[in-house]
Amino acid sequence: MSQKFDVIVIGAGPGGYVAAIRAAQLGLKTACVEKWVDDKGTAVLGGTCLNVGCIPSKALLESTHKFHEAAHDFAVHGIGAENVSMDVKQMVSRKNTIVKNLTGGITGLFKANGVTLLQGMGKLLANKKVEVTAADGEAAVYEAENVILASGSVPVEIPPAPLTEGLILDNAGALDIDETPKRLGVIGAGVIGLEMGSVWARLGSEVTVLEAMDDFLAAADKDVAKEAAKLFKKQKLDIKLGARCTGTEIIDGKEVKVKFTDSEGDKEIVVDKLIVAVGRRPQTQGLLAGDSGVKLDERGFIFVDENCRTGVPGVFAIGDSVRGPMLAHKASEEGIMVADIIAGHKAAMNYDVIPNIIYTYPELAWVGKTEQELKADGVKVKTGKFPFAATGRAMAANSTEGFVKVIADEETDRILGVHIVGGIASELIGQAAIAMEFCSSAEDLQMTVFAHPTVSEAIHEAALAVDNHAIHMANRKKR
To answer: Could you report the per-residue pLDDT of 261-281, keeping only the tens digit for each?
Structure first.
């Protein structure tokens, strides 16, 4: 007789492991299936985010930002730091240590909360049975009252640039480059492409980014995209828009010739490393037996409703394998929501208030809708912008680039979007998300007392600027 659980979660990424812990905390007998193992055969928890995504990339970004500051910005503070150097191998080693500590921490959390780890490849069978196939091919079948599919996503590969070890890399390979390439090519000017390009540009690489779309950061507010493009150009990131990769050629096993076409015709560049960062797709291949009852769309995403229920009672799906943004925090909150629903609690998630962040420097962050989206929807809006250059704390930190933009409904005054370009935009956007979650008006933020001196005062001033009441800058003339 097979072992039975109240909940079986397939996938131990930021959606899956959070769902498993929450379910166990709610008194449900819970198991979590994970196929990823290290070279010793030990399960690797945390999924893409902790292992080859969010966390390791931020470690590299933080290290290279500190290096760039020391090399270029310390002098303004009166600090002498001549001949600063970067030990790239040590930087990568530190990144690996951080990843190891965090993934090991999840193992400890599973034990502390009583989550059973099932090591192997999980597949949903009919009648909520889950087959787990170990690395040696041995399979076992488990029964569950509820199943949560949290299989995540994988990088999209493109035929013109097939991955080649050490030369043409996806996001995982990009994180293990252990010496600064003289010339770096990046295909895709999205989150991963811009972040990885920034890492190596700071260390002296000549970075060329090829973006097939004509618009830069099309998902961002146009004011944010315009400001970011200006700042990246200043940082010597050569971003070519409307540039579609048509082929690659390995030269002497050491270089990559990248062929592309743009509005001017066929062109090519030669680089030492090429990173392919054109997006991700759901990892649902092999996840579902033919008679499982769960349906996929034409792109491989699992069909779910607003509460992440599939068409099979008791089977849920969360994270990158379902609709919505492919973000770790979105997956985690879906995992909590689903665990609560299974335990019989009322739960819902507000998909209109999910922050998006690009961890370049300055950082780019936004929550809610862009001004362009709102106007396209026929919503009349009023906006307020305030530059960090006018805040004392940003001046003291020598981090004055960028601004805060607040968008409010012209009739109701409700905040519909907040968009930030700035040094710690990732930390500030949480204030905006909280305000929007509680349906705040611009006036609510205007009446809130912000500490002085802080960079968050820019949010206060931007809210005031919505009604032409900003104190520390000249307001627009009333028509």
So the answer is: 999 999 999 999 999 999 999
Domains of the chain: 4-155+281-342 (3.50.50.60), 168-278 (3.50.50.60), 356-465 (3.30.390.30)
451 CB-contact burial (10 Å; exposed 0-12 / middle 13-18 / buried 19+):
exposed
d(CA 382, CA 460): 15
pLDDT at 40 over 90: no
pLDDT at 10 over 60: yes
Among residues 68, 452, 460, 472, which one is catalytic? 452
Mind listing the pLDDT tens digit for each residue in 336-362?
999 999 999 999 999 999 999 999 999
Is 377 marked within a binding site? Answer: no
Q: Is 152 exposed, middle or buried (0-12, 13-18, 19+ CB in 10 A)?
A: buried
Separation of alpha carbons 239 and 206, rounded Å: 11
Place of tokens 């001046």: 395
326 marked ligand binding residue: yes
- pLDDT, tens digit, 9 for 90 and up, residues 403-433: 999 999 999 999 999 999 999 999 999 999 9
Annotated ligand binding at 122? The verdict is yes
Question: Is 469 marked active-site?
Answer: no
Q: For residue 193, give the DSSP letter.
A: H
Annotate 358-369 with DSSP letters as a single string.
E-SSSEEEEEE-
How is residue 249 written in tokens?
A: 């050629």
Q: Residue 236: its pLDDT value, please?
A: 95
Distance, in Å, from the CA atom of 408 to the CA atom of 414, rounded to the nearest integer, reads 5
**For 308, what's the count of Cα atoms within 13 Å in the CB-facing half-sphere?**
33
d(CA 385, CA 380): 17
H/E element holding 93?
Answer: helix 88-113
- Position 1 scores a pLDDT of 59
